[in-house]
Specification:
Blueprint (H helix, E strand, L loop, with lengths): L22 H5 L4 E8 L3 H13 L4 E10 L10 H18 L4
Length: 101
């Protein structure tokens, strides 16, 4: 597929790229749980989004899973380390949202 260099608005849409959202939108988000991996090339973006949501007054939690790479939750059936990390993530989700999820 060829990506046009002309802007279609897609790349400026805060619903596609939440880092572009204004503080008003970020402050209205429901509680946000961000999972980062230590070796994730998007970890800096996850940290930046967490900071933006906090500064806008939103409720956010960021957990960085040590020793993991991007997409590790897709690999839980292939390795016990991935499965153990996924269990920790589920515990954190339950802790954050409790009976709401």
């Amino acid at each position: 597929a060829v990506v046009s260099t002309q802007s279609t608005g897609y790349f400026e849409d805060p619903f596609m790229s939440p880092l572009l959202a204004g503080d008003e939108l970020l402050s209205q988000l429901p509680p946000v749980y961000i999972i980062g991996a230590e070796y994730d090339p998007l970890l800096d973006d996850s940290i930046a989004l967490c900071r933006r949501i906090k500064s806008a007054g939103g409720r956010v939690r960021l957990d960085v899973v040590p020793g993991m790479t991007h997409g590790f939750l897709n690999l839980v059936l292939s390795n016990s380390a991935f499965a153990d990390s996924a269990k920790q993530v589920l515990l954190a989700v339950n802790e954050m949202f409790g009976d709401d999820c």
